[in-house]
Design a protein that fits this description.
Elements (H helix, E strand, L loop, with lengths): L4 E7 L7 H9 L7 E5 L8 H9 L5 E4 L2 H4 L3 H14 L3 E4 L13 H38 L15 H9 L5 H7 L4 H14 L1
Parallel strand pairs: 1-2, 1-3, 3-4
Helix pairs in contact: 4-5, 6-7, 7-8
């Protein structure tokens, strides 16, 4: 049976654009039915389209991937998957952004040695970048919170009569339930907004 060529594409979120990777696969004349794309994190290989592609592979097939971080971002798992694909499945992999990572070249000992070194370095870089992204996100969120930025949905504006009802409730002219009913709110919501108003003042 003739060898097949596959393309694997990954973006981390549904909002990210996969066009650059798709264009690269089309330029290589990879058949549309042989292009597999996941829209999820590269932290592990439990990705539906990646797993579907692996099940189809047979010896001497070829997989194109745009860059090593599109394959994954976990150092140990990238190395393990590379071993499974090249040694157990006996397929070739070509990383387009790194020509040295093309298992069709240098099948001799020196070629394999060089490719293993490059793979280990790039896999480490991919995981390190993932760690740095997480750290930058955490630092960015902490800095935003320190500036008073609030995350989550914006609270609904207070009803026009809220301040007056709040004063009447605090002045014991209304019970908590009466005050909440007057503002068309559940008791818990009225109380939480009242406390927030007092703290802001």
């Amino acid at each position: 049976m003739a060898a097949s060529t596959y393309g694997y594409i990954r973006v981390s979120t549904k909002e990210q654009n996969e066009d650059r990777q798709l264009i690269a696969m089309r330029e290589l004349s990879v058949a549309e039915k042989n292009i597999f794309m996941d829209k999820q994190s590269g932290k592990d290989f439990r990705r539906p389209q990646y797993q579907r592609m692996v099940k189809k592979l047979k010896p001497d097939d070829l997989i194109y991937v745009k860059s090593i971080d599109r394959l994954g971002r976990n150092y140990e798992e990238i190395l393990e998957q590379w071993r499974i694909l090249t040694r157990e499945k006996r397929v070739d992999i070509a990383v387009l952004d790194m020509p040295l990572l093309d298992t069709r070249r240098g099948k001799d000992l020196m070629g394999t040695f060089l490719s293993d070194i490059v793979l280990q370095v790039l896999s480490f870089v991919a995981e390190n970048e993932r760690s740095n992204i997480r750290q930058r996100q955490a630092e960015g969120i902490a800095a935003a919170r320190a500036r008073g930025v609030r995350f989550g949905r914006s609270p609904h504006p207070l009803p026009e009569n809220f301040r007056q009802i709040h004063r009447d409730w605090r002045g014991k002219k209304l019970t908590l339930k009466e005050a909440a009913d007057a503002c068309a709110m559940p008791v818990g919501t009225f109380y939480a907004k009242a406390v927030r108003l007092e703290n802001d003042n």
